Amino acid sequence: MKFFIDTANLDQIKEANDLGILDGVTTNPSLMAREGIKGEKGFIDHYIKICNIVDGDVSAEVIATDYQGMIKEGEALAALHPNIVVKVPAIKNGIKAVKYFSDNNIRSNCTLIFSPGQALLAAKAGATYVSPFVGRLDDISSDGVELVAQIVDIFDTYGYESQVIAASIRHTMHIIQCMDAGAHVATCPLNAILGLLKHPLTDIGVEKFLADHRKLNK
Ligand code: G3P
Asked: Angle, nearest 10°, between helix axes 40-53 and 67-80?
């Protein structure tokens, strides 16, 4: 299972990358806005900074919702760095754009997936990644993890090569459950990744080892 970090915050990206376990980054317009990034140059500079930190796929989302606009933005984003993956929403023009990108050797991440049907269309169009949003489904009393499992199952059954990114991950149990469901990637906030390390028995164990060592090595 690959780990992406779901943020545009450079410090958090560096911290996750320094752990040595980071495979990539996903961003979206809300995450870019949270960092105060604005203007075309601001976006370009920020994506380049991210690509210079992490040696892995970096999803950069188009803002346009019309087909030609998505193509123009996607081509410009893809030209920024070989690791850029163009992120497009799972709307009608988005699926058409995914097909165009696939035909033109541009990798894509089809986002805002909330149903198996959306994932199927994205995979048929040739998306490199599809991103079901786990937390946002849980927010409305649906089962986000179950959707991830369904999509993985469908892709396995029909041999689609698109990878499933479990997105909108909110906490460590989401990561564990999505791993169990067979997601190829989990894109997570830093605190959910670090949360995987937390165990009181580990902390108690380290403390005891050090105390025993200190007894004989004063
Ligand atoms: O990966 C998608 C993510 O950024 C959305 O997360 O917490 O806003 O649902 P959230």
From this structure: 40
Give the CA angle between residues 202, 204, 210 to the nearest 5°.
100
For residues 113 and 175, give the distance between their C-alpha atoms in angstroms, rounded to a whole number.
Answer: 17
Mutate to test the pocket of ligand 1, among 111, 133, 148, 165 (most ligand atoms within 8 A of CB): 133
For residue 187 and ligand 1, the question of a CB distance below 6 A is answered with: yes
Model's pTM, two decimal places? 0.96
Contact 204, 183 (CB under 8 A): no
CA distance 94 to 128: 13
Tell me how far apart the alpha carbons of residues 108 and 162 are, in angstroms, rounded to a whole number: 10
* Span 91-131, pLDDT tens digits: 999 999 999 999 999 999 999 999 999 999 999 999 999 99
**HSE-CB of 69 using CA atoms within 13 angstroms:** 9
